[in-house]
Amino acid sequence: MNQEEKKLGVVSLTALVTGNMIGSGIFLLPSAMARLGSLSLVSWIFTTIGSLFLAFVFSKMSTLIPKTGGPYAYAHAGLGKALGFQTAYCYWINAWVGNAAIALAGMGYLSVFFPQLANPKTACFVAIAVVWLFTWINLKGIHAAGVVQVVTTITKLVPIFFIAIFGWFFFHADYITSSVNVTSPALSTFDVITQGATLTLWAFIGLECATVPAGSVKNPTRTIPIATILGMLIAAACYISGSVVIMGMIPNEALQNSLSPFADAAQMIFGNWGKWLIAFGAAVSCLGCLNGWILVQGQIPMAAADDGLFLKIFAHRNRNGVPSYALLITAALISLLLFLTISPDLVKQYKLIILIATLATLISYLYTPVAEIILLRKGAFPFSRKSIFVAAIAIIYSLWAIVGAGTDVLAYGAVLVLSSIPLYIFVSRKEQ
User: Fold this and answer.
1) 346 has pLDDT over 50
2) In CATH, what number is assigned to the domain containing residue 105?
3) Which residues pair with 217 in a beta bridge?
4) Residue 385 in domain
5) Measuring CA to CA, which residue among 339, 391, 304, 248 is closest to residue 92?
6) In the predicted model, what is the mean pLDDT of the chain?
7) Which residue range(s) make up the domain with 321?
8) Is residue 371 included in any domain, yes or no?
9) Mean pLDDT for the stretch of residues 285-300
10) Long-range pairs, 370-378, Cβ under 8 A, ≥24
11) What is the pLDDT of residue 16?
């Protein structure tokens, strides 16, 4: 197999986008939205439209700057070295901290089949082993990781679509109409939709993943835009259809208190074995998402290191063209974080860190359309009023999403962003 054949094509790259977007969150999202009421379903419309504008921006930028690094590459080109480094730094932290959470969530679903994983210590060490397994797969080359991503993405989509299709036979419209706004004290329609959009936004994190490994993609200027839009639409179809059907299958009060809404719905449709079906789908969903994010987490620091904005060790490739040291260092950091989370006292802090890390991803969602407008106005690319309009909407949506994260998260997120400044000074001096 030559080097071109080893690269990611439309199918594997679409699977990367869809697989990285659909992780563990979808299996709990209906319960979280039920606490707001069925009005929160409208949030999906705004989130999907806003995310679609972001997807268009990333697709456009991938054709203008077909370079490995995705959000980092775009921020570097349009906003300079300092904000380029900040984007790489924040995105990298989000990737590996998020991977620790995904690995633990996967253990939770696997405990249905292996009760020993209910023990925190056992779950921790198995999660670490799984992280290193997928790290090893990624070290074998991006093609091997792509194959795994296609298989796991198809496997995870099957149970979700089963519920989205067969759930309509158990659908009760009055469950939707009788619980439009269940907030107490009652929030305004706008506030319910805004809070719902904050919840649904997290489900769309990962829509930019096709742009990150651009140097390992076949015909990137064509493949990346197709994979980005198609992958996002597939994920959106899963989210919206699953949420609507489950809200119409389970009474609102019961849904609010459900720890596994998809499993409850599957049990209604398929009987007792439905629980096993969803547990299997959820476990595969987590593992496939973990594989995809491990692929991504090595590409961002590698791209920055190639430009002298990360330690050179992150730029090292093995014989398969994979940033091996970046993957190994990051896997070690994930293992350390998983080990630390054995203590129940750290759980609350850990959840906060995950939310802050997700906020860090939103930084790249804001910087990318800003970078596009700057590059267009500078004449780096042919001027387009349509592109300016799309980028402007993406900026407004990103700002709305960031503000919607809440003041506490914004405060801690600001500390994370500011911490990039001394690190940038250190790296810049090291590379001079």
Assistant:
1) no
2) 1.20.1740.10
3) 8
4) no
5) 304
6) 84
7) 10-345
8) no
9) 86
10) 370/78, 370/79, 370/395, 371/61, 371/74, 371/75, 371/77, 371/78, 371/79, 372/57, 372/60, 372/61, 372/64, 372/74, 372/78, 374/78, 374/79, 375/64, 375/77, 375/78
11) 87
